[in-house]
């Protein structure tokens, strides 16, 4: 659309169902590349995708014609399909329902980029559940822990 200008930066976070440690180091770079390509295919821009065995972080420039829910639905469905078709896990792979989508001011893009880049080091000190609840708390987002994480039952 002519005369439409935007600068929408998002930090996206999504987890493996039941927070299982299912993303293995030996194939995670391929997964992150697939996720980055899936984001780019929507017309959005991938800055970085990284994570650890139970969750993924993405830094994205959102295209205004694409909704966050549309982007996440596509990325999660197609990336889990990739994992299952490539038989990268011994059992069926699924992402947990829901995701985190946090807007950023341009001045924070480099800081969040480095944070995502250093996920492995970060998670030697902080577990995902603590990390995620800290993000929500720091941003003033009210949440019910009962519904934030799916546990094995």
From TrEMBL:
Pfam families linked to this entry: Y1_Tnp
Residues annotated as domain Transposase IS200-like: 5-119
Coiled-coil spans in chain: none
Signal sequence extent: none
Gene3D superfamilies in the record: Transposase IS200-like
Top-level taxon of the source organism: Bacteria
NCBIfam families in the record: transpos_IS200
UniProt-listed PANTHER family: TRANSPOSASE FOR INSERTION SEQUENCE ELEMENT IS200
Protein name, as recorded: IS200/IS605 family transposase
Lineage: Bacteria, Pseudomonadati, Bacteroidota, Cytophagia, Cytophagales
């Amino acid at each position: 659309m002519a005369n439409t200008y935007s600068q929408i930066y998002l930090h996206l976070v999504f987890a493996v169902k039941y927070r299982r440690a299912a993303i293995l180091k030996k194939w995670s770079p391929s997964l992150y590349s697939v996720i980055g390509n899936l984001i780019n295919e929507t017309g959005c821009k991938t800055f970085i995708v990284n994570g650890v065995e139970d969750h993924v972080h993405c830094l994205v420039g959102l295209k205004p014609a694409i909704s966050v829910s549309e982007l996440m639905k596509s990325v999660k469905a197609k990336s889990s399909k990739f994992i299952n078709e490539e038989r990268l896990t011994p059992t069926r792979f699924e992402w947990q329902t829901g995701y985190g989508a946090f807007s950023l001011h341009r001045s924070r893009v480099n800081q969040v980029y480095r944070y995502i880049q250093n996920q492995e080091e970060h998670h030697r000190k902080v577990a995902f559940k603590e990390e995620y609840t800290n993000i929500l708390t720091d941003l003033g987002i009210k949440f019910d822990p009962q519904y934030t994480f799916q546990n094995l039952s």
